[in-house]
Specification:
With 322 residues, the chain is α/β, with parallel strands linked by helices. The chain is built from 10 helices and 12 strands. It has 2 domains: 1-135 and 277-322, 3-Layer(aba) Sandwich (Isopropylmalate Dehydrogenase), CATH 3.40.718; 138-269, Isopropylmalate Dehydrogenase (3-Layer(aba) Sandwich), CATH 3.40.718.10. It is globular. It binds nicotinamide-adenine-dinucleotide and 4-hydroxy-L-threonine-5-monophosphate. The site of nicotinamide-adenine-dinucleotide has 18 residues, from helix 3. GO terms for molecular function: 4-hydroxythreonine-4-phosphate dehydrogenase activity; cobalt ion binding; magnesium ion binding; NAD binding; zinc ion binding.
């Protein structure tokens, strides 16, 4: 399987964790990095290529070299780089859609830097990739060995969550999650737990009405379709080890309800994966980490896990085409 890596924000830790991950996986996965090679850590062995490689390259990191103009200053994004960062994602998508690569792994972007420098119209990769693929609804999943979580609403202000959390959104999110658990992760009959929006999942309507009005009817309808769905559950007690053993994925009402438990349990090993796209996309669970960029101390574990997951998902899809 060949995986292309979009460079992400040059002022962040993305180039560093990509170079370190390549060093760790050089004999295991065919990796190709898209970006300006001057943004890679000094001393990274580079081999410029004109197309993604199809075999592992243990001696040098294959690079689709693109000129971003000014050099990168660690920790300080340059608006002049933003168009190149966006173009690298677009190129990665084009390569996986054409079949030139098997999967895309995106290094972290700095959303504000892209909005300022490239009038980026999306709050994250997830929404941008959906637009590039022409898909109306995609699902963000963060996965580690101990837990898989899905925020039903993603990058929106907390104040907008109750209105955005419709029965249609919840139902589609759960259907996409269940289908991907089977297709990409080999779970024959996925068990999905759903977190309530309100404290104590609404306490039978005494602490918020969304569970009774929206969530419970939606989950009952999904059970009628044959899906194994439990909830809405009180979110505070569904992430300890015994609770986690009862489901394959937790669908949550909003971003932090889903991402706090997984980034607490396994920040180093978590992977962000987009479900519902016509291609495989993963990413590390961390961001640009400007506070440590350029110091050589960034932990590549999440990037390594993201690359391994991308290759494994691409292999699973090759074995199990839709
Ligand atoms: N996949 C993505 O593109 C992605 C994911 C998450 C956040 N982001 C973006 O990144 C930017 C910064 O986000 P943030 O500050 O909330 O989170 P962050 O993950 O960048 O940093 C949070 C903390 O974790 C540390 N950290 C992060 N990655 C690390 C690594 N590999 N090794 C060691 N320590 C690491 C940082 O030093 C910092 O202290 C924001 O613009 C955010 O939107 C992008
Ligand atoms: N919500 C993600 C996280 O905090 O890990 C992150 O912002 C990445 O989102 P995209 O994959 O949409 O860029």
């Amino acid at each position: 399987m060949s995986v292309v890596i979009s460079c992400g924000e040059p002022a962040g830790v993305g180039p560093e964790v990509a170079a370190k991950a390549w060093a760790a996986l050089a004999a295991e996965i065919a990796l190709t990095w898209i970006g300006d090679p001057r943004h890679l850590p000094a001393g990274t062995p580079v081999r410029e290529v004109s197309a993604p490689v199809s075999a592992p390259s243990p001696d040098a990191l294959p690079v689709l070299a693109r000129d971003f103009g000014p050099p990168a200053v660690p920790g300080t994004p340059n608006p002049a780089h933003a168009p190149g960062v966006v173009a690298a994602i677009e190129e990665g998508v084009a390569l996986v859609r054409s079949g030139a690569a098997s999967a895309l792994c995106t290094a972290p972007i700095h959303k504000a830097a892209l909005i300022d420098g490239a009038a980026f119209a999306y709050p994250g990769h997830t929404e941008f990739l959906a637009a590039l693929a022409g898909v109306e609804r995609v699902v963000m999943m963060l996965a580690c060995d101990a837990l898989k979580v899905v925020p039903a609403t993603i990058h929106i202000p907390l104040a907008e969550v109750p209105e955005a959390l419709t029965a249609d959104l919840l139902s589609e999110t759960i259907r996409i999650t269940a289908a991907s658990l089977t297709r990409d992760f080999g779970v024959a009959r996925p068990r999905i737990a759903v977190a309530g929006l309100n404290p104590h999942a609404g306490e039978a309507g005494k602490i918020g009405g969304e569970e009774l009005a929206v969530m419970i009817p939606a989950l009952e309808a999904l059970r009628g379709e044959g899906l194994d769905v439990t909830g809405p559950l009180p979110a505070d007690t569904m992430f300890h080890a015994a609770a986690r053993s009862r489901y394959d994925a937790a669908v949550c009402a909003y971003h932090d309800q889903a991402l706090i438990p997984i980034k607490t349990i396994d920040f180093a090993g978590g992977v962000n994966v987009t479900l519902g796209l016509p291609f495989v996309r993963t990413s590390p669970d961390h961001g640009t980490a400007f506070d440590i960029a350029g110091r050589g101390v960034a932990d590549p574990t999440s990037m390594i896990a993201a690359l391994r997951m991308a290759a494994a998902m691409a292999a699973a899809r090759a074995r199990r085409p839709r």
